[in-house]
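Internal tracking record. Fields below are filled automatically when a chain is submitted to the structure queue. Please do not edit lines marked as system-generated. If the sequence contains nonstandard residues, flag them in the REMARKS field before resubmitting.
Queue: standard
Priority: normal
Entity type: single polypeptide chain
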Amino acid sequence: MLLLTYLLLGACAGLIAGLFGIGGGLIIVPVLVFSFELQGMSAQVLTHTAVGTSLATIVVTSISSVRAHHAKQGVRWDLFKPLALGIVVGAVLGVKTAGQLSGPLLQLIIGCFALLIAAQMGLGLKPKPHRQVPGGAGLGAVGAGIGYGSAIFGIGGGSMTTPYLSWCNVRIQQAIGTSAACGLPIAVTGALVNIEEGWGNPALMPWSLGYIYLPAFIGIVLTSAICARYGARLAHSLPERALKRAFAVLLLLVGSRFLMTGFSAL
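SYSTEM-GENERATED OUTPUT FOLLOWS
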């Protein structure tokens, strides 16, 4: 049942990653937390392991999603390069920060973020494009902020990158594609630092590589890469409003559950 859960989770995460350019982590992290609880993983490490494992799976999902978006000229590589430099620095700092937080506090932070994204998606809140893309230094600073938050939440950063690029008058398809590309340096950096942060922790379960739980990682990536390609194709052909509202309801439930669990454990 756990393997089936991870396979289905990978399929959903991949589809969402390709469709919205958000890396799938907003689905992966909550489901992993719940499944790790059922497996009896220590509360001390289960949220950190969910975040680390999510980032590791996004490495594979992002590669597949980026290839699909690039084939449709959906990635602005001129914007990606300065963003990626800042992202790497921010992601390292984000993982280090998360390592200093307790599991319940980390759940509270993720829960609040999930509720914010639920509100943004459900209400269709979008910044009106009214400015131009900043220069390299400005994009680097933005990338550092995105990398920092993404590494804490275990996401690919698309929920922040896509609205920002859209605000800067980047065409929405290119904003989604560039956002998907930015998820790769976030995920690679976050996964590597999570391995280092969790290395040798006695509370981890067998088959853990630092804060990456390998059985979950393998199950998710077996289906996520395939479904990410379909998601990217759908992003260029289907209206997103109904899907985003349904996803917002799911995030509302997830965020509320995280807040209740976090507060009760503090």
